[in-house]
């Protein structure tokens, strides 16, 4: 059996509550009107009985009485009767079904009920001299109240179907308008989930309050997903492109070396080229693996406190030994004894990538300065060179994976376009920031800021 939708559940609840409230209102009005009508009727009965008693002329000296000739025993729905002290009917009458032998009670309203009907009775005692009394009684049937109650019940029964229809229509309209953003959200999420159009967003023009906040939250999430999928597609495309070239070189060299007429020197040269391309692919795969590990929260290395000043000096000394043929001048301006909490190996990779980048894009016989100094609770690390610099339009993109600001220094020179992406990923993982300042033809200055830790004991 198909489950009822939330829209119809809310509509039925709304209609049921509205019908209940109207029914309670009708009952309250019926109760109040009945009490008011009864109060007015009792007051009118009391006045009518006293007027009837005034029609009786009593001679107390002779203990006798008589009624005016024009006295009326029925007026405005009230039947009047006159009784002696023993309760015997002397004049007038009572309704046909009225119970006989009803007790006479002076100046008190009585409600008499039985299967035949319902009556209200008021009695007045009239002194006749000595210990003799006459009793004047007024009786009326509660037909007026019963008719009013029945009229209101009929009105409720007639209005109930119309009320249900109006309640369902209004409730459905209100619920549909309130849940419309949620339906649009579900449709948009379903479309995005199927991969049809990642640029879709939930309309928020007619949405307010919490639903507007929910729609905005989902739109921000969809925007992040779109950017993530776009980066993923771009990353896959770039990685395929980077691996296609060395694979093609390796294949062509292997095919050439297998030719029957190839010389041993040519085969040796081909193997050297294959080895060089394989080493380049190995470095590229290692960097891709490093980026993948940086992106995964589950594989983040444990943090430790270490001396970043000493680490910077070690990396700088190693880089000097590796780049002697470039005749690059290295200088250090490092404040000793600065500590951070992080991963020592990853931080060394940051220094190594920045220095390699400075060497590759620097000038022959150029100058590279490595600075490490404290500033407002942070440790600033700067790598400055006097190389070719970076054009302004490239500054925002150099941190992207496989992006190269200068295509002349391509992958053939060992540049995979992943070094700065790795730097940014590692630095942000350790709670820091990375930025760059550069002028074309004058050089660049890369700055990373990492939270400073207390000095070691």
Structure in a nutshell:
With 457 residues, the protein is of the alpha+beta class.
Tell me what the structure shows:
With 457 residues, the protein is α+β, with helices and mostly antiparallel strands. It has helices at residues 6-54, 143-193, 209-257, 264-295, 308-322, 344-360, 419-429, and strands at residues 56-59, 64-67, 74-75, 78-83, 89-92, 109-114, 117-127, 133-141, 304-307, 329-334, 339-342, 367-375, 378-385, 433-439, 443-453. The strands form three sheets. Strands 9, 10, 11, 12, 13, 14 and 15 form a seven-stranded mixed β-sheet that branches. Helix 1 (6-54) runs antiparallel to helix 2, helix 3 (209-257) runs antiparallel to helix 4 and helix 4 packs parallel to helix 7. Mean pLDDT is 79; it is low at 408-413.
Mean pLDDT over all positions: 79
The DSSP helix count reads: 7
Topology as a string of helices (H) and strands (E)? HEEEEEEEEHHHEHEEHEEHEE
> From the helix content, strand content and strand pairing, which structural class follows?
alpha+beta
Low-confidence stretches: 408-413
Give the CA-CA distance, first to last residue: 72 Å
The amount of helix comes to 40-55%
Overall shape: it is: rod-shaped
What are the defining features of this structure?
alpha+beta; rod-shaped; 457 residues; 7 helices; seven-stranded mixed sheet
Layout of strands and helices, then pairs:
Blueprint: H1 6-54, E1 56-59, E2 64-67, E3 74-75, E4 78-83, E5 89-92, E6 109-114, E7 117-127, E8 133-141, H2 143-193, H3 209-257, H4 264-295, E9 304-307, H5 308-322, E10 329-334, E11 339-342, H6 344-360, E12 367-375, E13 378-385, H7 419-429, E14 433-439, E15 443-453
Helix pairs in contact: 1-2, 2-3, 3-4, 4-7, 5-6, 6-7
């Amino acid at each position: 059996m198909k489950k009822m939708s939330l829209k119809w559940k809310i509509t039925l609840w709304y209609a049921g509550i509205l019908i209940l409230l109207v029914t309670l209102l009708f009952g309250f009005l019926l109760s109040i009107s009945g009490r008011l009508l009864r109060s007015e009727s009792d007051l009118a009965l009391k006045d009518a009985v006293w007027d009837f008693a005034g029609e009786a002329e009593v001679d107390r000296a002779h203990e006798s009485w008589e009624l005016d000739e024009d006295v009326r025993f029925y007026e405005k729905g009230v039947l009047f009767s006159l009784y002696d002290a023993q309760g015997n009917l002397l004049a007038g009458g009572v309704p046909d079904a009225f119970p006989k032998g009803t007790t006479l009670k002076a100046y008190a309203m009585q409600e008499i009920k039985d299967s035949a009907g319902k009556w209200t009775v008021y009695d007045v005692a009239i002194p006749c001299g000595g210990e003799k009394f006459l009793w004047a009684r007024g009786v009326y049937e509660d037909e007026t109240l019963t008719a009013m109650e029945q009229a209101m019940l009929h009105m409720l029964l007639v209005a109930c179907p119309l009320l249900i229809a109006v309640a369902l229509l209004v409730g459905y309209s209100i619920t549909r308008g309130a849940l419309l953003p949620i339906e649009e959200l579900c449709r948009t999420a379903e479309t995005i989930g199927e991969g049809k159009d990642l640029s879709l967003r939930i309309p928020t023009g007619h949405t307010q309050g919490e639903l507007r906040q929910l729609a905005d939250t989902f739109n921000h999430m969809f925007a992040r997903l779109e950017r993530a999928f776009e980066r993923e597609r771009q990353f896959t495309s770039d990685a395929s492109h980077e691996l296609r070239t060395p694979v093609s070189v390796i294949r062509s060299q292997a095919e050439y070396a297998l030719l029957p007429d190839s010389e041993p020197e040519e085969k040796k040269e081909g193997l050297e080229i294959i080895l060089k391309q394989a080493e380049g692919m190995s470095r590229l795969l290692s960097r891709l693996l490093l980026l993948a590990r940086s992106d995964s929260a589950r594989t983040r290395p444990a943090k430790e406190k270490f001396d970043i000043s000493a680490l910077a000096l070690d990396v700088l000394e190693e880089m000097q030994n590796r780049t002697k043929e470039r005749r690059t001048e290295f200088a250090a301006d490092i404040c000793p004894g600065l500590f951070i909490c992080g991963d020592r190996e990853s931080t060394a990779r940051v220094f190594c990538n920045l220095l390699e980048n400075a060497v590759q894009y620097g000038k022959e016989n150029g100058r590279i300065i490595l600075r490490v100094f404290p500033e407002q609770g942070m440790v600033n690390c700067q790598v400055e060179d006097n190389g070719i610099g970076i054009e302004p339009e490239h500054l925002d993109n150099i941190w992207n994976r496989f992006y190269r600001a200068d295509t002349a220094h391509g992958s053939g020179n060992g540049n995979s376009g992943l070094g700065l992406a790795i730097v940014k990923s590692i630095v942000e993982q350790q709670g820091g920031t990375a930025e760059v300042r550069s002028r074309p033809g004058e050089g660049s200055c890369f700055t990373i800021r990492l939270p400073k830790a207390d000095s070691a004991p």
